[in-house]
C-alpha cells in the first residue's frame, strides 16, 4: 500500500489551503523552498548544516587516531576546530594530515567545503538580487457608496521609496453556488475594476469595483457572503524602476473581512507648497459611511 504524503499548507493572503496526498518535493522545489525562507530561517539552516558537517568530519578525524599532526589525542574540540579550518580552506598550518587516512578525509572535506561555500554564496546572491514587491494591502475591504453607487474597495500602498510603473490590478471572487438541487460547486468571477492599470504608482491608492447590475456582487448582503463562503483574491503586477524588473504581490480576503457601510479614511493632505502628504499610518483605518 502506498504511504500517503504529509499534508502541505499553502497560504494565499488570509486564505489557507491544506494539500493532502500531494507529490513529494523535487530538487527544483527544494531550491524554491530555500529561496522562500525568511532571512532568519535561512541563516539558521545554513548554520545548522555547517555545524553538522564539522561534527561529521571531526568524528572522522578522531576515528583515524593520530592522523593529524599537532592534534591532541582524543580531543574532540581540537578535531572540531581543525575541521572548521579545513572546511573553510583556511588552514593555519600548525595542524596538518600525518597519515594517508588523514590526507583522504582532509581532501574530501576540502571538496565538500568548496561546494558548500559555492552553494551558499549563490543562494545569498539570488536572495539579495531578486526584486521584491514591497506592496501593502489594506487589512479589510469596504463596501460604501462612491459616486452614488455601492462600491467594493481596497487600499494598496507602495512601500518602496521610488515609484513603480506600469502597474496592473486584478480582483476575483470565488464562492459556492448551487448547480443542481442538492449539489454545489465553486464558481470564479472576475471583478471589473474602475481602473485596472496605472502608468505610475508612486504611493497609495484605492482600488474600486462598482457593484452594478452586471456585478456578481449585485444586491449581496453579509449573510449571503457568509452562506456562500465568498473569498476575494487580488494581485498587482508592476515594474520596479530601480532594478528594471517586474514584481508581483497578491493577497486574499475572507467574507468576514468585508465591512458594509464603511469607507476608508482620507490619508492625502495637500500642503501649502503643493506637495501631497500621505499618512501611511492610517492606511487600514475605516470609518462609518455618512448617512
Description:
- This protein has 291 residues and is of the alpha+beta class.
- The protein folds into two domains: 37-129, Helix Hairpins (Orthogonal Bundle), CATH 1.10.287.70; 135-288, Immunoglobulin-like (Sandwich).
- The protein has five helices and 18 strands.
- It has helices at 27-36, 39-63, 76-87, 100-129, 222-228, and strands spanning 8-12, 15-19, 68-69, 96-97, 135-137, 141-146, 149-158, 164-178, 184-190, 197-201, 204-210, 231-240, 245-254, 258-260, 262-264, 268-270, 276-278, 286-288.
- Strands 5, 6, 7, 11 and 14 form a five-stranded mixed sheet that branches. Strands 8, 9, 10, 12 and 13 form a five-stranded antiparallel sheet that branches.
- A hairpin with a 5-residue loop joins strand 8 (164-178) and strand 9 (184-190).
- Helix 2 packs antiparallel against helix 4.
- The longest helix is centred in the middle third of the chain and has 30 residues, at 100-129.
- It is elongated.
- The relative contact order is 0.12.
- The mean pLDDT is 88.
CATH architecture annotation of the largest domain? Sandwich
Could you spell the SSE succession in H and E letters? EEHHEHEHEEEEEEEHEEEEEEE
Oligomer: single chain
Portion of residues in beta strands equals: 35-45%
**The level-1 CATH class of the largest domain:** Mainly Beta
Q: What is the residue-mean pLDDT, rounded to a whole number?
A: 88
Structural class: alpha+beta
Number of helices: 5
Major sheet characteristics: 5 strands, mixed
Number of domains: 2
Question: Roughly what percent helix?
Answer: 25-40%
Unreliable stretches covering 5 or more consecutive residues: none
Radius of gyration: 29 Å
Q: Can you tell me the CATH topology of the largest domain? A: Immunoglobulin-like
Q: State the CATH superfamily name of the largest domain.
A: G protein-activated inward rectifier potassium channel 1
Distance between the termini: 64 Å
Amino acid at each position: 500500500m502506498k504511504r500517503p504524503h504529509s499534508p502541505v499548507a499553502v497560504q494565499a493572503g488570509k486564505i489557507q489551503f491544506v494539500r493532502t496526498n500531494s507529490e513529494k518535493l523535487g530538487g527544483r522545489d527544494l531550491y524554491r523552498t530555500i529561496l522562500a525562507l525568511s532571512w532568519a530561517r535561512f541563516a539558521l539552516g545554513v548554520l545548522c548544516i555547517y555545524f553538522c558537517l564539522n561534527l561529521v568530519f571531526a568524528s572522522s578525524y578522531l576515528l583515524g587516531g593520530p592522523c593529524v599532526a599537532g592534534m591532541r589525542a582524543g580531543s574532540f574540540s581540537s578535531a572540531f576546530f581543525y575541521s572548521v579550518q579545513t572546511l573553510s580552506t583556511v588552514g593555519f598550518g600548525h595542524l596538518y594530515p600525518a597519515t594517508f587516512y588523514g590526507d583522504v578525509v582532509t581532501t574530501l572535506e576540502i571538496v565538500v567545503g568548496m561546494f558548500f561555500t559555492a552553494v551558499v554564496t549563490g543562494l545569498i546572491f539570488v536572495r539579495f538580487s531578486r526584486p521584491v514587491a514591497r506592496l501593502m494591502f489594506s487589512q479589510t475591504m469596504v463596501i460604501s457608496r462612491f459616486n452614488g453607487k455601492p462600491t467594493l474597495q481596497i487600499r494598496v500602498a507602495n512601500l518602496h521609496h521610488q515609484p513603480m510603473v506600469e502597474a496592473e490590478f486584478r480582483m476575483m471572487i470565488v464562492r459556492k453556488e448551487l448547480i443542481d438541487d442538492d449539489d454545489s460547486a465553486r464558481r470564479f468571477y472576475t471583478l471589473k475594476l474602475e481602473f485596472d492599470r496605472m502608468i505610475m504608482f508612486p504611493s497609495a491608492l484605492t482600488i474600486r469595483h462598482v457593484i452594478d447590475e452586471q456585478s456578481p456582487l449585485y444586491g449581496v448582503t453579509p449573510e449571503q457572503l457568509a452562506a456562500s463562503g465568498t473569498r476575494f483574491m487580488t494581485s498587482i503586477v508592476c515594474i520596479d524602476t530601480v532594478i528594471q524588473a517586474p514584481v508581483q504581490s497578491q493577497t486574499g480576503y475572507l467574507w468576514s473581512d468585508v465591512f458594509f457601510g464603511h469607507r476608508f479614511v482620507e490619508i492625502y493632505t495637500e500642503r501649502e507648497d503643493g506637495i501631497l502628504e500621505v499618512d501611511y499610518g492610517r492606511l487600514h483605518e475605516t470609518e462609518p459611511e455618512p448617512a
